Amino acid sequence: MxxxxxxxxxxxxxxxxxxxxxRGKRGPLRVMDDRAMEFASxxxxxxxxxxxxxxxxxxxxxxxxxxxxxxxxxxDVEDPPPPIDAAMRMGSTRxxxxxxxxxxxxxxxRMAHRFIVGESTRDARRVLRGLWGEGVAxxxxxxxxxxxxxxxxxxxxxxxxxxxxxxxxxxxxLPAIALLERDGGGPTPRVNLSVKxxxxxxxxxxxxxxxxxxxAAERLxxxxxxxxxxxxxxxxxxxxxxxxxxxxxxxxxVLAEDEFSxxxxxGVVLQAYLRDAPVLAGRILEFCAAHQRxxxxxxxxxxxxxxDHEIIEARQHGWTAPVFEVKADSDRMFETLTxxxxxxxxSGTAVRVAIASHNLxxxxxxxxxxxxxxxxxxxxxxxxxxxxxxxxxHALSATGHRVRTYCPVGDLVAGMAxxxxxxxxxxxxxxxxxxxxxxxxxxxxLRAP
Amino acid sequence: xxxLPPFANEPLxxxxxxxxxxxxxxxxxxxxxxLPLRVPVWIGMDRREGDELVSTDPGTPSRQVAVAxxxxxxxxxxxxxxxxxxxxxxxxxxxxxxxxxxxxAADVLRRERARLTALAVRECAKPWDQADADVCEAIDFxxxxxxxxxxxxDQAVGLLQLPGERNxxxxxxxxxxxxxxxxxxPLAIALGMSAAALATGNTVLxxxxxQSPGCALELVRALREGGVPAEAIALLPGAGETGAALxxxxxxxxxxxxxxxxxxxxxxxxxAAAPGLGAHHLPRVIAELGxxxxxxxxxxxxxxxxxxxxxxxxxAYGGQxxxxxxxxxxxxxxxxxLVERLAGAADVLVTxxxxxxxxxxxxxIEESAQERVRHYAALAEQSGRVVSRTDAPLPEAGxxxxxxxxxxxxGDSPLLFDExxxxxxxxxxxxxxxxxxxRVDELRFALTGGLYSRSPRTVxxxxxxxxxxxxxxxxxxxxxxxxxxxxxxxxxSGTGTKAGGPGYLLQFVEPHVVTENTVxxxxxx
Lengths: 449, 525
What we know:
heterodimer, A: 56% helix, B: 14 helices, 20% strand
């Protein structure tokens, strides 16, 4: 498909979506958080202090310890704005520290709840059912501490298994929504769980992908069986390049096993920021063409969330960065891959395409490309992150598009790494969301990368 | 002459990519077909081959990797003589010319890189990533010291200049340098010490560890191919006696040694006794002598980072690094969780042959090392609690040792004070970071140390209190990079020199100050 010919439709869809974005409906808490984040975006030292603080909150022993950490980080901020100055003064007395620590705990918890839907899958029931009521599907992700032992991998697998059961209850008895439950490839499950290979095995080694693959497969197979029998979807997330070979080999080899030819519905992730993403795209599509599974494989296309990690690791080791260093290159690759995946599906390859992005342009492009290829609204799924993509999610569901929200579940300790990453993303000056919030005109937002 | 590009570390192999791994597997197969290597006593153009010394694969002791001659004391005498006669010419060459030879040697190592990596895997049972890092560090030392020597020659030392006098200071090489090298970085350390001496204009006698003569042969070949005169770099394979003969030789001006404390002390004593009353110089000993390295973990540390960091520091290459972690001093609030997670993480470590990708704990270097590790492991069982699994199946042949994590050791346990140089880690609870610092202070070693804390104030406090030569904060404590983490210990751990750092070359030179009167007939001319 020709990208340039698609341009008028992309603009049209983009404007439709932009018009559907909610306006002036922000609660007071939301406004406060946005202010804090705006604050943080503007001052690098403050940003660093706040994130280092959020990061350490779960490890602090009581409010006094918490306040000591907070003031310790703020020491490094050179020209503290008045509220920070006040906090520093509070930190000098015991009573002040207690108050400061308590206030900070509340603040961090509130921020966390914006991105994390509950401490457990059951806690998330209200939110998930609420989303369904708005015409929005979900994929639940179980946050956890890093897996460094076999026992931790077993525990994670057990949590996944329990979540599959719980989610069946959560979605039980809800009204049918055709847009979310069937596409050109057949029925699509309501229950959708994302799993991380790095949590399924402590043995991921960049130079020995087979080691982690074999170990993770032992824990993935029972989950796949359970998902198959319960009619649920299991999506294996992608992480940093260090584990890409293990994760890819894991999914493609296990799904090719006979016992999974009839299901479950499953998915992989393709990261557009990787320079060699087309190679992996080719491999995945070959797999889809070669294995006639009952449920087409879902490919979730993302920009990629480990950009800083990849760049730092490459610099420290003297490697060429595996990711694009200019954002527009990633955006262009994202569109190229979008068309490649949709083209493949349109020409009969058994693949489902999910577009995970908060970038209005990328999303509009995918929707327009899908239409141009004769796909119905269910044939391209847009995925957003809870807390970051709420507005876009609303606009998409309101305009009749299929949208799925990625919903992390977990406690504060487990969620902190996720939370810090989301906060960093949200305050990065380079992000689409930042542009959107700061009022960059729609023509700019929708311009081809 | 065009200036050299600034120093940059040699990129590590990107082993997460399959083609890079395949390249190494192929190189190993090719190398295996050529084993054993014949390593001569190699003085100038004279080569004497012999079979007095055999290095074997620690994972398959029946496999000979190198068959070497062992330098006799007569050969040591001859080598010192040749090196002393080569010194005037080599030292008189401009630093740029010597540097060019080292840089060409670096290119030889790059060309032979895969083969050298494979050789370190075979001869010293270094896992692939570790062997690769060893080759890269060897290249780094050549590149770094080549530049450093040019700088040392070019840069005017700042002295006060008053009217009527011109003061200058310059550095000149010391003379014949004996390099006595260890087996655990069979390429990087042997070459690092040699390169520093050569770059500054000294002539070198390299006595490699008896366990790794094969690697040393490749280094000497590379240096000579690069253009270092044969007379300026001799290879003297041998055991302790060869090293001792070098240390006490009155014709040796500098001894650069990396190894254990007992041998280091012997060398210091021998060197001190070497100059008789009629001696023409005072020998200098540059010593890097190992450590008993502690990682402090505060209650606010992120255990998700701590566990992999400590496991890597303690068990990568079976803990056979002088920088390796051997004690963890952890805040009592998190000790139980940390011990449980460390034990579980140790249990999934792969103890297997070095040439299998994914191996963390390869066989230790030799049988006596295996006995030593077993001795400490037994001691840990008797006097404390071993929390790692003790029933792990190990390969039959080879000097394998399963990783050991011990807790609840008595305060005077040798496990807390001896350098074990194997996969043994002791974990102790402490009431505070200060209590941990006190224990670090008690040690006679001060090489590397670690701290995991998320409080900037704690970090600052420990930095002020720590005696160690290299302190690592919130990261593993091994893997010092040339030019980034100049490496070396204080106290009994070494003479305080920093390999791969700005001051290192000063150990290999003597300062000369010239003051010239510029006044004639009351006028400055």
